[in-house]
């Protein structure tokens, strides 16, 4: 066991220690809440440490106003308590937040807010996880990482950013296009965020230009009146993945037309195979494509450099913009706080892919790192709770049997 001074040198300041009865969960997003609810159903208490001041902070503080779920609600439910029946098929942001709030209150989940985990490390000698926040050190036999795949914005280094005299912001700071009326805006990135923010800008009479530097799959949100995702899930039960990809692309081409002609070239690999191999999510179109067709959203080349008044593109063209919105995605932050374990890659994703990436060694678990959205979260949470509950019950049994031995010994001693 390291001395206090040694611990300090290893990065653990002398902090007040709190022994946690049950697992420590880092993050009070949907994944942390789902894990806590499933544990509670198994009779296992837990403690959630959350760095912000609310639950589901990604949804409450870092998403734009017009956001709606892309997938029907039955694919975005957390375990044990579904969306209210009167919610629409695709709940909007405020409905999703209200669902999270009722979920937390239903399971009596009370995270500790403003508790950013700075460091968590396994103490082999004691067989516990030491989890450090600014002022406290929490100890538990189990640690559940629930900080999400989208914990931090990806901010690319683009030459000349410092020269630009307009505003540069990431989509996580974008609320609505109302501030950008009549402005020429460059949206860098064409994932779901880039497409939806460009659409929102159009609806607020701004003039968006969207950078597409690579290939991208755009699919309709629905096919034959059913969600494309639901159709794909159903087909995958019967047909091989590549055939399903071909069918999806056939229908997408029939309904959306040839997207290549709009500057949105399709990758050679199909949408589901690409998602499985690289994690790259296909865009589900909710209206941006028709604005691209009408020329209201202009598709532009990759950016070479940012200038004082705008941008120089890879093809040599130069254009002026008043603001630049980085729709460049998100990354996990696990490597910044989880130390001394090689369960996660340097990008903060479990090394073992889905469906086995939920369990590490020494009581370490990961929920919500499956690249499968809330469906993946639900699957992880159930398995984690089941696994921990088994250990929890065995530990309780052994304490009970130790106590009864002790009582028998005491009785014998008393009888002598
Ligand atoms: C714009 C947008 C739209 C999306 N729409 C959908 C959708 O429709 N359907 C879908 O399935 N998925 C969607 N997703 C994916 C989304 O990430 C998940 O739905 C969901 O939010 C994941 O939940 P989570 O709890 O794993 O992560 P998060 O929601 O990111 O929650 C993680 C929590 O951990 C906290 N945290 C981070 N680091 C620390 C730390 N060091 N210490 C303490 N707390 C910490 C954060 O503050 C946060 O509250 C969307 C993502 C984005 C960005
Ligand atoms: N309504 C919804 O349900 C909804 C809405 C928004 C987002 N989401 C989800 O949220 C997650 C994140 O989505 P996202 O769109 O924010 O991120 P994303 O899917 O990771 O897309 C990032 C985009 O930025 C581009 N990019 C990154 N760096 C760049 C650079 N330096 N120059 C030019 N382009 C660059 C990427 O291009 P490359 O492909 O070339 O790297 C990609 O087009 C996804 O899972 C998504 O499905 C859901």
Automatic annotation (TrEMBL):
Catalytic activity: indole-3-pyruvate + NADPH + O2 + H(+) = (indol-3-yl)acetate + CO2 + NADP(+) + H2O
EC number(s) reported in the record: 1.-.-.-
Cofactor: FAD
Pathway(s) where this gene product acts: Plant hormone metabolism; auxin biosynthesis
This protein's record includes keyword Transferase: no
Keywords, ordered alphabetically: Auxin biosynthesis, FAD, Flavoprotein, Monooxygenase, NADP, Oxidoreductase
Gene3D superfamilies, per database record: FAD/NAD(P)-binding domain
One GO MF term: flavin adenine dinucleotide binding
SUPFAM superfamilies: FAD/NAD(P)-binding domain
Superkingdom field: Eukaryota
A GO cellular component annotation in the UniProt record: endoplasmic reticulum membrane
Record-level GO BP terms: auxin biosynthetic process
The keyword Membrane is annotated on this UniProt entry: no
Entries under PANTHER family matching the protein: FLAVIN-BINDING MONOOXYGENASE-LIKE PROTEIN (AFU_ORTHOLOGUE AFUA_4G09220) (PTHR43539), FLAVIN-CONTAINING MONOOXYGENASE (PTHR43539:SF78)
Homology family: Belongs to the FMO family.
Name listed for the protein in its UniProt record: Flavin-containing monooxygenase
């Amino acid at each position: 066991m390291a001395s206090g001074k040694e611990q300090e040198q290893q990065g653990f300041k002398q902090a007040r220690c709190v022994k946690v009865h049950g697992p420590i969960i880092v993050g009070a997003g949907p994944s942390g809440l789902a894990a806590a609810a499933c544990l509670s159903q198994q009779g296992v208490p837990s403690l959630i440490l959350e760095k912000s001041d609310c639950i589901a902070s990604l949804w409450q503080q870092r998403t734009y106003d017009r956001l709606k779920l892309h997938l029907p609600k039955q694919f975005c439910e957390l375990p044990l308590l579904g969306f209210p029946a009167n919610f629409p098929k695709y709940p909007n942001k405020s409905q999703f937040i209200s669902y999270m709030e009722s979920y937390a209150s239903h399971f009596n989940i009370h995270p500790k807010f403003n508790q950013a985990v700075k460091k968590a490390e396994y103490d082999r000698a004691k067989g516990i996880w030491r989890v450090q926040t600014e002022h406290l050190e929490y100890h538990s036999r189990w640690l559940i990482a629930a900080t999400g795949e989208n914990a931090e914005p990806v901010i690319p280094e683009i030459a000349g950013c410092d020269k630009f005299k307009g505003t540069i912001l990431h989509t996580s700071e974008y609320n609505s296009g109302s501030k950008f009326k009549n402005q020429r805006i460059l949206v860098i990135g064409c994932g779901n965020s880039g497409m939806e923010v460009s659409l929102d800008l159009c609806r607020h009479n701004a003039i968006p230009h969207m950078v597409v530097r690579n290939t991208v799959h755009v699919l309709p949100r629905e096919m034959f009146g059913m969600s494309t995702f639901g159709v794909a899930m159903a087909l995958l039960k019967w047909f091989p993945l590549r055939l399903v990809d071909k069918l999806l692309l056939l229908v997408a081409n029939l309904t959306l037309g040839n997207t290549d002609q709009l500057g949105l070239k399709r990758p050679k690999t199909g949408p589901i195979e690409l998602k499985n191999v690289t994690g790259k999510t296909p865009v589900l179109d909710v209206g941006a494509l028709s604005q691209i067709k009408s020329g209201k959203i202009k598709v532009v080349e990759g950016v070479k450099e940012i200038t004082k008044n705008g941008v120089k593109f890879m093809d040599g063209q130069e254009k002026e913009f008043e603001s630049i919105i980085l729709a460049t995605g998100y990354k996990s932050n696990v490597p910044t706080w989880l130390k001394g374990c090689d369960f996660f890659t340097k990008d903060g994703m479990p090394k073992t892919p889905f469906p086995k990436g939920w369990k590490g060694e020494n009581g370490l678990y990961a929920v919500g790192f499956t690249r499968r959205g809330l469906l993946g979260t639900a699957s992880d949470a159930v398995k984690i709770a089941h696994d921990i509950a088994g250990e929890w019950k065995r530990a309780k049994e052994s304490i009970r049997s130790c106590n009864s031995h002790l009582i028998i010994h005491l009785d014998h001693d008393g009888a002598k």
